[in-house]
Amino acid sequence: MVRGGKEERQSCLFGWIAVVLGEGDSFHLVPGGAALSVVRAALRQKP
Fold first, then answer.
1. How far apart are CA 36 and CA 26, in angstroms?
2. What letters, b where the CB count within 10 A reaches 16 and e where it falls short, cover 5-19?
3. Nearest-angstrom CA–CA distance, 22 and 32
4. What number of CA atoms fall less than 13 Å from residue 44's CA on the CB side?
5. Residues 6 or more apart from 23 whose CB is under 8 A from it?
6. pTM for this structure?
7. Contact 1, 7 (CB under 8 A)
8. Residue 24 pLDDT grade (very low, low, confident, very high; cuts 50, 70, 90)
9. What angle do CA 8, 23, 2 make, to 5 degrees?
């Protein structure tokens, strides 16, 4: 959708917005998931 040359401008804009929003979500979710896994691992090691 982003790279299609024959599509209308609105469709191309929609594609770019979807890509940007998807990257923004992953930017916030990936570090949170990593931190959560570290905390879980630390809790498992306690006696």
1. 15
2. eeeeeeeeeeeeeee
3. 16
4. 6
5. none
6. 0.47
7. yes
8. confident
9. 20
